[in-house]
Amino acid sequence: MSRISQRFKQLDEQGRVALIPFVTAGDPGPQVTVPLMHAMVEAGADIIELGVPFSDPMADGPVIQRASERALEHGVSLRDVLGMVQQFRELDSTTPVVLMGYLNPVEVMGYEAFAQAAQDAGVDGLLTVDLPPEESDELLAAIKPKAIDPIFLVAPTSSDERMKRICDAASGFVYYVSVKGITGAGHLAIGEVAAKMAQIRKHTTLPVGVGFGINSAEKAQAIAQVGDAVIVGSVLVKRIEELSDSPDEIAPAIAQILSSMRQAIDLV
Q: How many other CB atoms are found less than 10 A from the CB of residue 108?
């Protein structure tokens, strides 16, 4: 059983919903990321999504695009991100880490080489936004034997047939994109999300996490009533951007946001 599956099993036994924060690795500088990861866990994060900086992020809004730009200005590469995960693992051997990004850096490294390096570093999942399940066989063949879960996105516009295909290819959890648009955009309609959760669960027994558009403790609490995980990104990355000239203040500020969300989620 993967670390992700173990974590969701523990949460299910406790009757709790997962909190999954996203930050971009290397933003605003490489030295910030690992201490921030530890601070997020202390604040109540159950799984960490670590963004791999990329120059042409198609699904990300301006806030996360700028985060990638700041990290790339420091030359942060996929190998650097794996190094950060490995450093994180020196003190935390239990919190699952999912890499989220785009296919190009993985393809450049090579699927087999990436899978081995990711396993060695302690990576638990991989979400490549621009890789549909129809084209994922080669990558899945490389990462699944290394106990790395492939995470796929389900959109509000996904048909039943499409949902089934995505769910059949996924492991760990399924990521439901709760708004039509890029990260940080759109109006979050809880009723529509609840309906989609029921639809997705017809096709999988995997946990379903909900992300995009969750920027407050109130929204996190509402999503926790219908989802198995609350995934939050842009509001954290925006706060990091605001504090980019005061890096020592970043971890406490992000921890404060996550703590308020954790408390709200646990009231459900």
A: 11
Calculated CA dihedral for residues 167, 85, 5, 138, nearest 10 degrees: 40
* Every domain of the chain and the residues it spans: 3-265
User: Residue 45 in 3-state DSSP?
Assistant: coil
Residue 174, both tokens: 């399924």
Integer Cα distance of 100 and 48 in angstroms: 10
Gap between the Cα atoms of 114 and 76, Å rounded: 16
Tokens representing residue 198 in the block: 């029921």
The Cα–Cα gap between 139 and 54 comes to 19
3-265 placed in CATH 3.20.20.70: yes
Q: What is the pLDDT along the chain (268 residues), one digit of tens a residue?
A: 899 999 999 999 999 999 999 999 999 999 999 999 999 999 999 999 999 999 987 767 899 999 999 999 999 999 999 999 999 999 999 999 999 999 999 999 999 999 999 999 999 999 999 999 999 999 999 999 999 999 999 999 999 999 999 999 999 999 999 876 555 545 667 888 999 999 999 999 999 999 988 999 999 999 999 999 999 999 999 999 999 999 999 999 999 999 999 999 999 9
CB neighbours of 92 closer than 8 A, spacing ≥ 6? 37, 38, 41
DSSP 8-class letter at 43? T
Q: Are 51 and 70 in contact (CB under 8 A)?
A: no
Half-sphere CA count of 215, side-chain side, radius 13 A: 15
Q: Enumerate the active-site residues.
A: 49, 60
